[in-house]
């Protein structure tokens, strides 16, 4: 039977590169679903994939992970279309309105942490978060909670007797414990919502394994490395994207000293693609699988222990379940009040 693979945020960047790589090794044995917010861009991505792989089965699904109703509607559509779901790549994400701290940048430029600063953005990037129409903080909802609801809705398809399914979260080297707080899981009070949301995804992946492995569902986390995508370009929103190419020689030089500068979406998708070929039972739930590229341009995947613990991950899971109950009740109440 064909494997069914759904990728959120698949219309560009790492998500689209993953889809291209998957079809390159198995054009006819996969049913690929591009789950995207912008359907015009999704159509363009689908056309590009079919141009390279005319026999491929590529479907589109509209989903906005910042919207509760969109996530639930999308999950219902998935259940209508498919009777199974083998891989769910939770890749969509945002880093809204990033602010670049010039002083911190130049200070870090002449310090021993310069490579780390470039690779993770630590200390030089802050974000101005927004609030969704549902009343939840936008980065938390888009990067974490929307995906959590999606998984919960699709649980019957993901947990099937006699076979395994995989969740794969696109995390980041910017996922820092210091940015996350159990008392403020939406990161309402901080300036590092992106880092907080990615650290929370690391935690959530661990506890999902605890609760779902016996039902055949396995969760893993990857880091794509430093990749030149729209997310990267938005770090300096007033800086034209084409001017980033001027930095390319510098980035290539840095890559001679660190393997985290994957630079291209194809390279950044290495760990996502590598996990597709692994038996989920063999994977380490405490590891983040990093896409790495050597100075000579060779791609490989390396597991690195995450700075997480089961107690914190379980506490986050309980808080997310409680929030899920609250938003579902609110949605149900709103539906009752709406005229037929």
TrEMBL record:
Its annotated pathway?
Answer: Steroid biosynthesis; zymosterol biosynthesis; zymosterol from lanosterol: step 5/6; Steroid biosynthesis; estrogen biosynthesis
- The record's EC number reads 1.1.1.210, 1.1.1.270, 1.1.1.62
Membrane-related topology note? Single-pass membrane protein
Query: Where does it live in the cell?
Result: Endoplasmic reticulum membrane
Task: Please give an example of a GO cellular component term from this record.
Answer: endoplasmic reticulum membrane
* Bilayer-crossing regions: 235-254
Keyword Iron-sulfur listed: no
* GO MF annotation, one: 5-alpha-androstane-3-beta,17-beta-diol dehydrogenase (NADP+) activity
Question: Which chemical reaction does it catalyze?
Answer: 17beta-estradiol + NADP(+) = estrone + NADPH + H(+); 5alpha-cholest-8-en-3-one + NADPH + H(+) = 5alpha-cholest-8-en-3beta-ol + NADP(+); a 3beta-hydroxysteroid + NADP(+) = a 3-oxosteroid + NADPH + H(+); 3-dehydro-4alpha-methylzymosterol + NADPH + H(+) = 4alpha-methylzymosterol + NADP(+)
Q: What class of enzyme is it?
A: oxidoreductase
Domain of life, per the record?
Answer: Eukaryota
Q: Which Gene3D superfamilies match?
A: NAD(P)-binding Rossmann-like Domain
Q: What is its main location?
A: endoplasmic reticulum
Example GO BP:
cholesterol biosynthetic process
Keyword line = Endoplasmic reticulum, Glycoprotein, Lipid biosynthesis, Lipid metabolism, Membrane, NAD, NADP, Oxidoreductase, Steroid biosynthesis, Transmembrane, Transmembrane helix
Keyword NADP in the entry? The reply is yes
- Identify its protein family: Belongs to the short-chain dehydrogenases/reductases (SDR) family. ERG27 subfamily.
PANTHER family (UniProt xref): 3-KETO-STEROID REDUCTASE, 3-KETO-STEROID REDUCTASE_17-BETA-HYDROXYSTEROID DEHYDROGENASE 7
Question: How does this chain assemble?
Answer: Binds to the short form of prolactin receptor.
This chain belongs to which protein, by name?
3-keto-steroid reductase/17-beta-hydroxysteroid dehydrogenase 7
Task: Tell me what organism the protein belongs to.
Answer: Haplochromis burtoni (Burton's mouthbrooder)
Please spell out the taxonomic lineage of the organism that makes this protein. Eukaryota, Metazoa, Chordata, Craniata, Vertebrata
